[in-house]
Amino acid sequence: MALLEMDNLHVAYKMRGQGVDGGVDQWVDVVRGISLSLNKGETFGIVGESGCGKSTVAFAVMNYLGAQGKISKGHIYFEGRDLPLLSEVEARGLRGKKIAMVYQNPLSSLNPAMRIGRQIGEVLEHHHHLSPPKAYQRSLAILEKVHMPDPASVMKRYPHQLSGGMQQRVVIAMALISNPDLLIMDEPTTGLDVTTEAAVLDLVNELKAEFNSAILYISHNLGVIAKVCDRVGVMYAGQFVETGQVQTIFKSPSHPYAQDLLACLPRLDWHYQRERLQAIEGQVPLASNLPKGCVFAPRCRYVQEDCLRERPELRAWNDRSSRCLQLEAIAQRRDCSQRHGSGGVDGFKSRGEGGIVEARATSQTLPLQRPTAQSRRWHRPEHQKRRNLRPRR
Fold first, then answer.
1. Backbone φ, ψ for residue 332 (5° rounding)
2. Helix %, strand %, coil % for the chain, to 5?
3. pLDDT in tens, 306-338
4. pTM above 0.90, yes or no
5. How many angstroms separate the CA atoms of 251 and 248, rounded?
6. In whole angstroms, what is the distance from residue 103 CA to residue 184 CA?
């Protein structure tokens, strides 16, 4: 049995009525038909644009939907127990102990009036009933495990006295201190610089190997998903449009939305004078005003008449699952393009073929950039001698 399993999950929020008199409040499904399974030691990534419902899935697992949200249909099983049916007391026993979550903004997740040592130790005192001295020692040890510089000093500081990367390490330490079976990470590297982001991602891989935890990783960054995840679900307008292995999806995406997401990634050989960065036209539709047929039809390049009438179901396609009525036609078109040497659908090459996935498989090694005429002149022997003779300031 899988550690975490979602079966046809629907999540709804109460929308206020429209009109002068306020109208009648109604429940609108913002997440529809999400199904996935996650085993221990496995990382499942959810990727998509903002407003697709990624964080709502995480909040449904944690039962943090609030009074205006509810699970309208489906089930969430954790270790065989249906989470929505648990009482609040039973849910508190799981949160923080067996299920932990790392939120987008670490500063807003920490108590500004409590020192870091006290906040981390509180988790152990509540769930494991440790004494304050023992909780302090465990807290110090977990900060060292997440490579926190000078952990003893950090234990005495307040959240606002830490940098963004240090705050993120504190939140991750709080989530891992109880050795949870399931770790939910909701865009944990948002707002961090590239160097700190790389350090946090390396830390996630190290801790997953050590604790054998299952990780549900939510992000809009395709490069991050490629680095830390085993399987991925591409989400659009509250539903999965494609799911499968990371290598498979990134190398040859089948759904038009997944193709467009990868096409938006800049390449290392991109130059602004030769080509423009690609973008997906339009916006994600509102949950209360979805198109009649395929929800991606208004933005799709391959839209046909039946796409405007019929809403496709998620179906098995080769070695992944995809939600599209034109999969056969798109695959045939891609084969024709590749035979004529264009390298992909409509002439664009999947960024995963020579970029993200390849970098992941080769330990993040990147190809050398081609030298320009300016760099060739600068590295001639006469220029090297002239540069070495420059006086030091």
1. -65, -40
2. 40, 20, 40
3. 999 999 999 998 889 999 999 988 888 877 766
4. no
5. 5
6. 8
Q: Which two tokens stand for residue 109?
A: 């997740």
Q: Which of 255, 270, 260, 273 has the alpha carbon at shortest distance from 354? A: 270
How would you label 254-282 residue by residue, b for 16+ Cβ within 10 Å and e otherwise? Answer: bbbbbbbbbbebeeeeeeeeeeeeeebee
Residues 234, 296 contacting (CB under 8 angstroms): no
Structure tokens at 73: 């249909």
Q: Which of 140, 146, 138 is nearest to 167 (CA)?
A: 146
The structure tokens 């039946």 sit at: 306
Token pair listed for 265: 């990634």
Taking the CA atoms of the chain, what radius of gyration do you get in angstroms?
Answer: 24
Give the amino acid at 13: Y
Which tokens sit at 56? Answer: 């709502």
- For 146-169, the pLDDT digits (tens) are 888 999 999 999 999 998 889 988
| Residues forming beta bridges with residue 77, ordered by sequence position | 5, 82
Beta bridge partners of 366: none
Helix (H, G, I), strand (E, B) or coil at 211: helix
Question: SS3 for 132?
Answer: helix
Residue with tokens 């609108």: 28
Note whether 334 and 345 are within 8 A (CB).
Answer: yes
* Tokens matching residue 237: 């307008």
Strand ranges, E, within 81-212: 81-82, 99-102, 182-186
Task: Extract the tokens encoding 92.
Answer: 């508190």
**Can you read off the two tokens belonging to residue 340?**
């004529």
